[in-house]
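Chapter summary example.
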Amino acid sequence: MIVVSDTSPIINLSVAGHLDLLRQLYERVLICETVAEELKQLGPNQPGVEALDLEWIEIRGIQDKARLEVELEQLDAGEAETIVLALESHADWTLIDERHGRERAESLGLKVVGLLGVLLDAKKHGLIAEIKPALQSLQQFGFFMRPALVAEVLRLAGE
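The structure predicted for these 159 residues follows.
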């Protein structure tokens, strides 16, 4: 199973101490060159930058520059290139948290999962015991989640 990830899910999984869940849930984890550059620009010792050194995360360039230009009219560079890479690699999942990027990916026929979906899937597969501590870490880091969404995620997780 192939997942192509945008920048923020990698950063936020790192903050929560669960970046390795991507390796455990998916056979292949791809990021585009723009996402790699965004991670590099975070600087040393920042959450998410360690992804650049992980052998199980593949950095890939895209081929369809015309498609990228179309997507750049609506999205930031990381999201646009992530979507193009997901299309080109026939990804099973596209990992994007931002609503506009998710909607665009879905409109192109891509299956989308977000950070919270990854955590729920990890709990379902017994890879983590609880989601609540991860949500608390994310909130302390500044990751915004509507209280109703947090309540729904915890309900779905049985917590």
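To summarize the output: The radius of gyration is 15 Å.
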